[in-house]
Write a structure and sequence with these properties.
The complex is a heterodimer of chains A (about 300) and B (about 180). Chain A has about 300 residues and is α/β, with parallel strands linked by helices. Helix content of chain A is about 30%, strand content about 25%. Chain A has a single domain (about 85-300), classed as Vaccinia Virus protein VP39 (Rossmann fold, 3-Layer(aba) Sandwich), CATH 3.40.50.150. Chain A starts with 13 loop residues before the first helix and ends with a strand. By secondary structure, chain B is of the alpha+beta class. Chain B folds into 2 domains: about 1-100, no CATH class; about 115-170, Roll (Archaeosine Trna-guanine Transglycosylase, Chain: A, domain 4). Chain B contains 4 helices and 11 strands; from the N terminus they run H-E-H-E-E-E-E-E-H-E-H-E-E-E-E. In chain B, strands 1-2-3-5-6 form a 5-stranded antiparallel sheet. In chain B, strands 7-9-10-11-8 form a 5-stranded mixed sheet. In chain B, a hairpin with a 6-residue loop joins strand 5 and strand 6. Chain B is elongated. The N and C termini of chain B lie far apart (about 60 Å). The model of chain B is unreliable at about 1-15 (pLDDT under 50). Classes of the chains: A alpha/beta (about 300), B alpha+beta (about 180). The interface between A and B is large, with 39 and 33 residues. Strand 7 (about 150-155) of chain A pairs antiparallel with strand 4 (about 85) of chain B.
Chain lengths: ~300, ~180
């Protein structure tokens, strides 16, 4: 937990932040609207005697006791276990049915399958991951949830090729990058044991490469959502700052029904483009969730 | 690309299925280039004849072969052939004499079926989901059936069963099995 001390200058109520990081999180499920309506999924859970509570989002239900996978609606593919804040970026991207969307770091597929549902399982959702083992989890989740609009590629997202798809650009891209995962500490208390600044700096280089590729692969006027589950400005605002400097894109305002803080424009010796304040930092004590970072960009003319 | 866009079979160069890539199914027999590869028309007819699923249900979907006799359904279209990891969901196996839909295809599209659908009680569904065979009465055809379970007041497709000799043989793949039977 000492790692988290570095964020004391950023966090409004640091004691509450520390306390929240030590509490476990409840199991949350997302209703898979490809197979069932939210009302029917609630009815099926109630029939099973599975207790649930509402969350910030109508389609996300917090299970107060049960495990997400041990009930009939789950085996019918009506439900998917997904943490509350992890459902934020797909909602922010908000793709429409029939569009072309890229999920740059897709496995194990919680956000991919959520995007597919938002697209009514139509259009084309290209889902990329660099790790074949994780792709097998992604495939299994997508199939269990009945997703048919996903095309999965195995490659480094920094070098994502549009060739198999005849060069077609995307309307939207989701860049939910691998990160130091500090925000998942409530789920994985060991997360910070391996934390080093050099890992943060190394992975930030990868994140910059992926975000740049996503901006390049998205059509002018399209949108890119960048998200992480870390508090580190090196992996958040600094990555956005780099994309603003090197690619044709800008940050835009957006709303979410969750308490949050703005992106930081200053960290240690560095200052960032003032527009990174449009990004949102969700701390665990804000809404009693995991930690999260999310930004929305629009793509300009190349 | 015109030949491919019209549904012609691009496996023509070698005349056999190549397992590292996805090939769109030819629309009809005339366009078939790979021996034994099913056509889109055959796939639509099979779902219609076996389960009464209206071909219009699949209007927006394209069908692909990846792996011999392994047919995938993709919502929309993309250039063919395509070399990627996965395209839509595995939908149907056509290698053997009797074609077999996947559990995932049945859960996704089986709600449109009007025949060869076997409704199970909750207790029977639990036996089926555990992967166990059971003796059941069924007046209809033998062979692969769509098995349903009641959920939130309606019949919902759960998986594929093989009905022979008075017995329903669960085809739930190992990774999808669950033990929900109460003692």
């Amino acid at each position: 937990m000492e790692v988290l001390e570095r964020y004391e200058p950023l966090v409004d109520d640091f004691a509450a932040f520390r306390a929240a990081c030590e509490r476990p999180l409840p199991s949350v499920v997302r209703v898979n609207t490809i197979k069932a309506t939210v009302d029917r999924a609630r009815e099926a859970l109630a029939e099973e005697g599975v207790a649930f509570e509402p969350t910030w989002h109508d389609g996300l239900l917090a299970l107060t006791e049960a495990q997400p996978g041990a009930n009939w609606p789950y085996v019918h593919g009506w439900l998917h276990g997904q943490e509350e804040v992890s459902a934020v970026p797909a909602e922010v991207l908000d793709p429409d049915p029939g569009e072309r969307v890229w999920d740059a770091c897709a496995a194990p597929g919680s956000k991919t399958t959520q995007l597919a549902a938002l697209m009514d399982d139509s259009g084309t959702l290209v889902a990329t991951d660099s790790n074949l083992g994780r792709i097998s989890a992604l495939r299994s989740n997508a199939e269990r949830l009945g997703v048919t609009n996903v095309a999965i590629t195995n490659e480094d997202a920094r070098n994502h090729s549009l060739k198999p798809f005849d060069g077609a650009e995307y309307d939207h891209a989701l860049v939910d990058v691998p990160c130091s995962c500090e925000g998942t500490i409530r789920k994985n208390p060991d997360t910070l044991d391996e934390w080093t600044l050099s890992h943060v700096e190394g992975i930030a280089g990868v994140q910059k490469g992926i975000l740049r590729r996503a901006v390049q692969a998205t059509r002018p006027g399209g949108t890119v959502v960048y998200s992480t589950c870390t508090f580190a400005p090196e992996e958040n605002e600094a990555v956005l700052d780099h994309a603003l400097e090197t690619e044709s894109c800008e940050l835009v305002e957006f709303d979410i029904p969750l308490e949050h803080a703005p992106g930081v424009t200053q960290w240690e010796e560095e200052s960032f483009d003032p527009s990174v304040a449009k990004a949102k930092r969700i701390y665990p004590h804000h809404n009693d969730t995991g930690g999260f970072f999310c930004a929305k960009l629009t793509v300009g003319e190349a | 690309m015109t030949g491919e866009d019209s549904g012609a079979d691009p496996g023509s160069a070698t005349g056999e299925n190549q397992s590292h890539r996805f090939d769109r199914l030819p629309a009809t027999d005339e366009e078939r280039r790979v021996e034994g590869r099913p056509t889109r028309a055959e796939v639509l007819d099979w779902w219609d004849e076996r389960f009464g699923v209206d071909p219009a249900v699949f209007e927006e979907h394209t069908f692909w072969e990846h792996g011999s006799g392994k047919i995938w359904a993709f919502a929309g279209d993309t250039p063919t052939p395509i070399e990627i990891e996965s395209l839509g969901l595995v939908f149907l196996r056509t290698r053997r004499e009797h074609w077999k839909p996947t559990l995932e295809a049945v859960q996704r599209f089986g709600g449109h079926a009007t025949r060869n659908v076997l409704d199970l009680s909750r207790r029977e569904a639990a036996t089926f989901l555990a992967g166990d065979d059971q003796e059941l009465d069924w007046d209809g055809d033998w062979g692969y059936l769509i098995v349903t379970n009641e959920l939130a007041g309606e019949r919902e497709p759960l998986g594929v069963g093989l009905y022979v000799h008075g017995e329903l043989r669960s085809q739930v793949p190992k990774g999808r099995r669950r033990e929900f039977r109460e003692e």
